């Protein structure tokens, strides 16, 4: 058994959450005022049976781990240790050598950053670098706050300094501060003649550096304008976000992440009071970075440079964020400036740009439709070729439908034709996409939208009734084929419920036992988003069907089955009508007879429902 599962078995969610917030009994559940957003009436619900919590005001929820992580701003490992102590669960000890190495690397990087900063502020060798820093708007206070520094154009000054501080060659090599000489013994400084920007992890510890060549060395520098620390036991550039340690509280408060390209953009923004801003530090936005950022907000806006490289970076970032179902927008910085210049010289323009940020799709429309003559067939084809793949990448069905209709109106092409083209695109997309799996190292943090349409509500009620009243699964098997469910995720969840039921012939039909066992059954094979959806539906069912007895639940379930089956049959009949029109035009008698037979069969079935 995984440690997290053992901890959850030994701890009661009511006891844990009750230690932080006042829980009020509400039937078989508990309510509380949510600590994660401002409210007066309690909208946070705790289910003791299912050992999950959910706020219906801010849409956060999950298990005991997610709550402790959220309220104490802990990592999963930190929350695991804290709850393991409460549960009396012994965690496997980590490698003491590895811990020791990490601590030494943190120490040497911290001292190196202070050394560089002191040189920039106090040494004559850094005069040109300091002039440049001041010209870019860095005051002495900002330099000290962000610990910006300077690495002299020397082969061994840092190496010798750290030696005197008691650090070994191995410590410096492990931290990425020195390189081994090609010939002979010894080491030399990795960074020379550069302005140093410390890169910190979410806890504010220095783990690496970005180094910009000092202006006086630009003409002779061969390694590039910017270089970064190598990957180390502390630094993986795909997982580190510049400025997040200082921005995370403001991001939560503003409920918006603003992503820029460079360190100076971030420093200038924070200095001027715009503190919900972070940087990718010249790297493409990664899956790992998006996963981290989603902990703080689902709303993300990109403000990259307006040049061609910046636009390419914006597109890649949009794609990555949309794949993770974030709400994506683009900030158009006025007059083609970068955020640093705009914020420094025209902060009001920046405020206006942030307020007027455009959606990702509006960004694509502007990029790809500008300059096209949409009265010309060739340009219409170009527009479809460019825009449809972007709409295809939208994961939310409602949003996808909205933009498809919008695009149809913009280019004056029938929506049905665009849908057919999109369907072909979907069919051709046969390479599987990697997804984050929910295992022991992932806490369940739910931040998903509530049902937006009647259809979504029907699907939620369908699954919710099966979870709360598992005896209805037998009814579902006999009455509702999976093809009557159009939503892919819901169909997958419904199918898994039936598979689990059929594979457990001696299953106890008890709501609490069923939910816990079913969730464990799918835990290792499904994505975090899939499990989030299950948790949300289960908690909603606790509220919606709290007063239902078995008879009432069955009647409600059968009503839903009738609605879904009718919609499915009516949809199938419409498809047959289209096919009939085509067959009649082609005068295909056999096809007409086959379709009419199928149509009549469905028509009879519809009348008997």
Explain what you see:
The protein is α+β, with helices and mostly antiparallel strands. The chain has five domains: 3-87, Zinc finger, CHC2-typedomain (DNA Primase, Chain A, Alpha-Beta Complex); 96-228, Alpha-Beta Complex (DNA primase DNAg catalytic core, N-terminal domain); 244-365, Dna Topoisomerase Vi A Subunit, Chain: A, domain 2 (3-Layer(aba) Sandwich), CATH 3.40.1360; 371-428; 445-562, DNAb Helicase, Chain A (Orthogonal Bundle), CATH 1.10.860. The protein has a six-stranded antiparallel sheet with strand order 1-2-3-4-5-17, with helices on both faces. Strands 13-12-14-15-16 form a five-stranded mixed sheet, with helices on both faces. Strand 7 and strand 8 form a beta hairpin. It is globular and about 90 Å long. The two termini are 47 Å apart.
Q: How many separate domains make up the residues?
A: 5
Enumerate the spans where pLDDT stays under 50 for 5 or more consecutive residues: 430-450
Count of runs of 4 or more consecutive helical residues: 26
- Rg, alpha carbons: 29 Å
General shape? globular
Query: Judging by the overall fold, what is the CATH architecture of the largest domain?
Result: Alpha-Beta Complex
- The chain-level structural class is alpha+beta
Quick one: CATH superfamily of the largest domain?
A: DNA primase, catalytic core, N-terminal domain
- Nearest-integer average pLDDT: 85
Estimated helix fraction? 40-55%
Q: What would the CATH topology of the largest domain be?
A: DNA primase DNAg catalytic core, N-terminal domain
**Oligomer, anyone?**
single chain
Number of strands: 17
Major sheet summary line: 6 strands, antiparallel
Main-sheet strand order equals 1-2-3-4-5-17
CATH class of the largest domain: Alpha Beta
Q: Strand content of the residues, in percent?
A: 5-15%
């Amino acid at each position: 058994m995984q440690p997290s599962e053992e901890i959850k078995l030994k701890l009661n969610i009511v006891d844990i959450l009750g230690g932080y917030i006042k829980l009020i009994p509400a039937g078989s559940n508990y309510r509380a005022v949510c600590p994660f957003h401002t409210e007066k009436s309690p909208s946070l619900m705790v289910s003791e049976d299912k050992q999950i919590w959910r706020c219906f005001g801010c849409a956060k929820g999950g298990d005991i781990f997610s709550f402790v992580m959220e309220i104490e701003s802990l990592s999963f490992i930190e929350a695991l240790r804290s709850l393991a102590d409460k549960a009396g669960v012994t965690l496997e000890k980590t490698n003491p050598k590895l811990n020791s190495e990490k601590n030494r690397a943190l120490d040497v990087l911290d001292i190196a950053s202070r050394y560089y900063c002191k040189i920039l502020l106090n040494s004559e060798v850094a005069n040109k670098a300091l002039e440049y820093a001041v010209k870019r708007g860095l005051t002495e206070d900002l330099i000290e706050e962000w610990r910006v520094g300077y690495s002299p154009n020397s082969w061994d000054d840092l190496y010798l300094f750290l030696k005197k501080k008691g650090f070994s060659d191995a410590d410096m090599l492990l931290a990425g501060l020195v390189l081994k000489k090609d010939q002979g013994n010894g080491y030399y400084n990795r960074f020379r003649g550069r302005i140093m920007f410390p890169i910190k992890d979410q806890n504010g510890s220095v783990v690496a550096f970005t180094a910009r060549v000092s202006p006086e060395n630009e003409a002779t520098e061969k390694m590039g304008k910017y270089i970064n620390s190598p990957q180390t036991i502390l630094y993986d550039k795909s997982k580190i976000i510049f400025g997040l340690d200082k921005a995370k509280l403001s991001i939560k408060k503003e409920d918006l992440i603003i992503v820029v390209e460079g360190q100076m953009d971030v420093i200038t923004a924070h200095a001027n009071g715009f503190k919900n801003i972070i940087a990718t530090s010249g790297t493409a936005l990664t899956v790992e970075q998006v996963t981290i950022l989603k902990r703080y907000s689902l709303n993300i806006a990109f403000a990259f440079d307006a040049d061609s490289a910046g636009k390419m970076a914006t597109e890649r970032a949009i794609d990555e964020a949309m794949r993770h179902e974030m709400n994506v927008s683009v900030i158009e910085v006025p007059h083609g400036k970068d955020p640093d210049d705009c914020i420094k010289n025209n902060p009001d323009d920046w405020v206006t740009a942030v307020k007027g940020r455009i959606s990702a799709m509006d960004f694509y429309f502007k990029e790809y439709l500008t300059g096209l003559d949409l009265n010309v067939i060739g340009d219409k084809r170009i527009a479809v070729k460019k825009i449809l793949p972007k709409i295809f990448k939208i994961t939310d069905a409602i949003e996808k439908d909205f933009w498809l209709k919008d695009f149809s109106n913009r280019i004056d092409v029938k929506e049905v034709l665009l849908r057919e083209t999109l369907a072909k695109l979907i069919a051709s997309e046969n390479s599987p996409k990697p997804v984050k799996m929910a295992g022991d190292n992932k806490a369940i943090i739910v931040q998903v939208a509530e049902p937006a349409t009647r259809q979504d509500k029907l699907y939620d009620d369908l699954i919710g009734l099966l979870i709360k009243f598992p005896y209805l699964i037998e009814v579902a098997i006999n009455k509702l084929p999976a093809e009557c469910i159009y939503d892919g995720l819901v169909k997958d969840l419904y199918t898994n419920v039936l598979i689990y039921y059929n594979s457990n012939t001696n299953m106890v039909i008890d709501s609490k036992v069923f939910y816990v066992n079913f969730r464990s059954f799918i835990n290792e094979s499904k994505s975090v988003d899939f499990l989030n959806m299950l948790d949300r539906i289960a908690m909603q069912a606790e509220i919606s069907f709290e007063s239902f007895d078995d008879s009432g639940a069955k009647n409600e379930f059968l009503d839903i089955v009738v609605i879904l089956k009718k919609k499915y049959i009516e949809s199938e009949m419409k498809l047959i009508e289209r096919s009939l029109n085509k067959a009649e035009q082609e005068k295909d008698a056999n096809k007409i007879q086959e379709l009419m037979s199928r149509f009549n069969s469905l028509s009879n079935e519809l009348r008997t429902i």
